[in-house]
Amino acid sequence: MQFKQDFFEQLEGFYSQVYPLPISNPHWLAWSDDAAKLIGLSEPNDELLMQLSANHAVPGASYYAQVYSGHQFGGYSPRLGDGRSIILGEAFTTKPTGEHSLAWDVALKGAGPTPYSRHGDGRAVMRSAVREFLASEALAALSVPTTRALAVIGSDLPVWRESQETAAITVRLAKTHIRFGHFEYFCHSNEGGKDKLIKLLNFTIAQHYPHLSQDYQGYKAWFTQVVKDTAVLIGHWQAVGFAHGVLNTDNMSILGDSFDFGPFAFLDTFKEDFICNHSDPEGRYAFGQQPGIGLWNLQRLAQALTPVIESDDLVAALNTYQAELVQQYLLLMRAKMGLGLGDLAVNTVDKSTSKLAELQAAQNKADLDFIGRFCAVMQHNMLDYTHTFRALGQLDIGCNNPNIADDIIDRPQFDTWFKDYQQRVVAGNNGKMVEIAAWQTDRNSVNPKYILRNYLAQEAIVAVEEGDNSKLVELHQLLTTPYAEHTDKQHYAERPPQWGQGLIMSCSS
Ligand SMILES: Nc1ncnc2c1ncn2[C@@H]1O[C@H](COP(=O)(O)OP(=O)(O)OP(=O)(O)O)[C@@H](O)[C@H]1O
Ligand SMILES: [Mg+2]
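^ thats the input. predicted complex w/ magnesium ion below
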C-alpha cells in the first residue's frame, strides 16, 4: 500500500497518534476483491494479515484517531472521537500516466483503545465486524454511496459484551472519515474556534471539492453540496429499503456516504415505521423517519458553521434539501417501477421555463402520491419490499389479472392500483404500450433479487462462530451481483423464516 498523510500532516490538533494493539491468532474471515482494487491490492497474503491485525507495522502508516463530537439520539455529546478505529493514512495507487488515483483512508476498526475510548475496550466483536463488512459491500454493489470494507480479520482474543465473544477487525476504506461531528466539535469545544473551523473547512474543500474556492463563496457552495449529497444518500436508502439505525451526527459522513454499520436492516416486509435498533424504542431512526432526520442532522451541522457562514445562506442551502431528496428518490423509484416520463412533463404548447417547471412539479407530486399508494398496498398486505419490486418488474404489464404475490390479502386494493399503474406506464411511454421484454430487462437491472437480509447475515455469523466462514464468503459473493438470477442460490432470496422476521439488533458491538 502506498500512503499519503495529508490529514495527519496538515491537521495537527485534530487527532491523537495512537498505535493499534494486535489481535491473537489472526485469520482472514472475509476479503473484498472490489475494495482491494481501489487501493491497488490484489490478493490477501500472510504479511498483509499480520500488518492489518496490528501484529506487524504497516510501512508508511501514521496511526491516528480523530477527535469529533456529535448529537446522539438528539442530545449533544461534547467529546467522542475514534474510540476503536485507528486510521493508517490515505492509500492511493499511481496510474500509468503518473497521476494518483482517488485516495482512501484505511482504518482498522476494532484495533484497540485510543484516547477517545471512554469506558470502551476499543474492540469490535466478530458479529459486528462481519455486519459492517457485508453492509458496506452490499450497498456498494447497489450503487448506494458508502464507505467500503477491504476485509474482516478474526482472532481468538476474548472480549466481553453480554457474554464472552471474540474480537475482530474490519478494515474500512473511506474517502474521508470527516463527519458532521468534526465540525460540531471544532465549533462548540474549548479546543475549537473559528480558526480551527476554517482550517478544517479548507482542508475538506481542498481534498474533496477542489473545484471550489477556499473563501466565502466557496464555503456557501460547499455547504449546499453537503446538503445535496446527504439528500441523495437518503433518497438511495429510501428507494432500496435500507434503515441505518443510528443516524447520530457522528455517523454522518461529510461526503454523504453511508457510514458506520451497526444495527442497520434492509427491509423484509415493508413497514414505514420499521425500527431496526433495539436501543431506539421510540423510533427516532425508524425507516420512514430517515428523510426528516437527515435534515435535522444538517441543521446541527449548519449550527456548527455559523461562525463561518451567515445564517441566511445556511438556511437557503437547507431549504434545497427536500427538493433534492425527492428528485433522487423519484429518479430511483421511477426506474424501479418503469415509470417513464416521455413527454409527460413537457408542455408542447408553451415551452416557457416557468410553465415547464410547473408541469414537472405537478408530475412529481402525482408520482410521489402514486408511489405512496403502492407503499400503502405493500404495507397493508405485508409484502416483502425487495420481492415485490422484483415481481412488479416481471409482470406482463398489459395483462388484466397480474399476480404480484401468492399471499396477497387484499386483492381488490392491488387490482385498483394496478389499473392506474398500467395507465401510468403507458402514459410515460407517450401513450404506447411498452415493449415488454425490454421493459422487464430494465426493471431487473435496478430491482435487486438479493439483499442483505438480517437473517442471512445472522446465519453467516453463526457459521463463523462454529468455525466455518464459507457461508459468509458465499453470501458476500452473491451480494456483489445482486441483480443476477443465480438460479442455484434461490434460497438466499427467500423471505426470512419465522425466527428471522423483523430482527431488531442491539447496539452492543
Ligand atoms: N468498544 C468500544 N470501545 C471504545 N469506544 C467505542 C466502542 N464502541 C463504540 N465506541 C465509541 O463510541 C462512539 C459511538 O460509537 P458508534 O457505534 O457510533 O461508532 P463506531 O461503530 O465505534 O465507529 P465508527 O463511527 O467509526 O464506525 C464512538 O466514539 C466510538 O468510537
Ligand atoms: Mg460511529
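The CA atoms of residues 28 and 153 lie 5 Å apart.
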